Every structure is written in C-alpha cells, then in structure tokens.
Amino acid sequence: MIEGVTIQFIVGDIRRASDWYTNVIGRGPDNTPYDDLIEWIITPAITIQVNGKGMHEQKGFSGRIRFAVDDIQEYRARIIHELRVEISRLEEIRGVVRWCNFDDPWGNKLGYYQDLSRHKEKISEDLEFF
C-alpha cells in the first residue's frame, strides 16, 4: 500500500528555485538535506523536492503537478504579480473543481486547483466551464 509521495522538480539554479518555489508554495522550505536539494513537507505524506543538479544532467518532470489551495484567485494573482509568469485563465467544472496552469522557469508544468465541494462560494462569471 502506498502511504505517501515525494515529487521532485529538476532546476538549473537552486537559489533562484528556492525563492521561486517559496512564492508558489507560500512559505519557505522545511529542509535542505544537501546544497543542491531543498524540500517542502506539504503534509506528512507529501513532500516536494527541488533538485538543483541542473538541466544538463536530467530533464524536468514531463507531467503536470497541481497544488491544492483554499483560494485559487489569491494564489493565481500572486503568481501573476510577484513572479510575472504567464498563467492560464481559471477553468472550472461547475461546483466540483477550479484550476489554472503555469510553468516554472525550468519547464516543469505546475498549477493550482481548488476543491469547490469543500469551499462553497459564489461562482465567478469570468470562468470557463466544462
């Protein structure tokens, strides 16, 4: 039985990535086991690692990882204003989930999602529904 997951992103500049992912996650890292590896413990069963070994040694993860947030509009605005990253418009399956996508500077595919069944709120008019 799987009891947890560690997701590792490969980056070219560990110092820049530390600042960048601190903004994305909303807080600083929990551990720095090596000079080129930093970790955020999201829950006791989920760890995000950022590996600075460099893009020349490995390619970045090719799938998309989305982080669950309680207020997607707040997180999306922060990415736009603080990191100046191109980010998709919000999309939604009405009453179920809302999401948006963006990439880090090293090509890792990221995003945020909000579980609407847990967060009852007014549905925004500027969303694309499925």
CATH homologous superfamily assignment: 2,3-Dihydroxybiphenyl 1,2-Dioxygenase, domain 1
Here the CATH topology equals 2,3-Dihydroxybiphenyl 1,2-Dioxygenase, domain 1
Please bin the fraction of helical residues: 10-25%
Number of domains: 1
Entry summary:
This protein is of the alpha/beta class. It has helices at residues 14-25, 72-83, and strands at residues 5-10, 31-34, 37-43, 46-51, 64-68, 91-93, 97-103, 109-115, 128-129. The protein has one domain (5-129): 2,3-Dihydroxybiphenyl 1,2-Dioxygenase, domain 1, CATH 3.10.180.10.
Itemize the secondary structure elements and their pairings.
Layout: E1 5-10, H1 14-25, E2 31-34, E3 37-43, E4 46-51, E5 64-68, H2 72-83, E6 91-93, E7 97-103, E8 109-115, E9 128-129
Parallel strand pairs: 1-4, 5-8, 6-9
Antiparallel strand pairs: 2-3, 3-4, 6-7, 7-8
Key terms:
130 residues; 2 helices; 2,3-Dihydroxybiphenyl 1,2-Dioxygenase, domain 1; four-stranded mixed beta sheet; alpha/beta; 18% helix; five-stranded mixed beta sheet
Structure, explained:
The protein is of the alpha/beta class and 130 residues long. The protein contains 2 helices and 9 strands; from the N terminus they run βαββββαββββ. It has a single domain (5-129), classed as Roll (2,3-Dihydroxybiphenyl 1,2-Dioxygenase, domain 1). It is globular, with a radius of gyration of 15 Å. The protein starts with a strand and ends with a strand. The mean pLDDT is 84.
